[in-house]
Amino acid sequence: MLALLVVLSLLLLTAYFGESPDGRLHGVQRDFLAVLSPIQDGANKALKPVRDLFSWFGDTLHAKSQLSQSLKQTEKLRRELVDDQAEKRSYRQLLALYHLDQLSINDYHPVTATVTGKSPNIWYATVWIDKGESEGIHVNDPVINDEGLVGRVVQAASDGALVDLITDSAMGVSARVGTSTATGLVQPKVGDPNDLLLQYLPTDSQAEDGEYVVTSGTVEPPYDSLYPPGIPVGQVTSTNEESAYKSVNVRPMANLHNLDIVQVLTAAAGSRPQRLESLAASFSSTQNAPAPGSEQLASTQNSG
Question: DSSP string spanning 79-117?
C-alpha cells in the first residue's frame, strides 16, 4: 500500500508539472484551494486567542524567571555594597586613627578595639569595648577615635574594658584653645549631655568661635596630664566671662552617640604615662576627690 501511494504520488506530480496551467490537475488544485482557504482563515481567526493565551503564559513565565534572577542579582549586589561601605568606613576610621597616632604619643601603644555596648541613657556616659588587660589595657588609659578624644578606661577585665566618655560627670581633661599656652579643665556642662565646658582659663586668654580645643599634655608644673598633648577634644561655640576665670563652651569633636571603632593608648611599664598613672593613683588614695587624672588635682589647686 505504501509503495502504491508513493508511485501514485510520483505519477500525479509528473502529470501536474507536465501539463499546462489550464490543465485538469491545476483546475482541481484551484478548486480545492478555493474551498479550503475560507476554512483556514476562519480557523486562524478562531485559534488566534488560544495562541495569544499560550504566548502570554510563556512570556509571563519567562518574565518571572528573569525577575527572580534580577532580584537575586540585586540582593547580591546590595550585600556587596553594604560590605564595601562597611570596609570603607572602617578603613577611613583606621586611617584617621593612624594620623592621630602621629601626635606626641610615642610613649603609648595604640590598641584598636570595637565598641560592644553603650550606656542606655541620653548622656552616653560609658561604653564597653572588646579589648582588655590581655591586650595591655589598664585603668586611666586614654581612649580616642578617628575624630578625637573619647574618654578614658575606668575598669579593665581580661577581655574587655569600661570607658568613661568625656561627657561623664567624673571626667576632667586638661586642655587649651588652639596654639594658646593657657590651660584649663574640660568637664561636662551641667544640664547638657552634648556640650562641654573648658573652665579656669585666665581672663586675658583669647578664644574665638570655631577654634579647636586640644589636650594640653600638662596643667601646671610639676603635675603632668595623663593625656598626650594635641588630641582634638572639641570646638569653641561661645565664651563666658562672668567670674574671675574665663570659661568656654565646647562642642565635642567625637560623635559619642555613634561610636564604633576606638583606640586605647596603652603605656608600657616604666614609661612616662605609666609613672603618671601611678602618681595619680597615689593622689586619689590620699584625697577624698574623684581622680580621672592628676589634672583635676592641679585644677583644684588653681581654682583655690
Answer: HHHHHHHHHHHHHHHHHHHHHHHTSS-TTEEEEEEEEEE
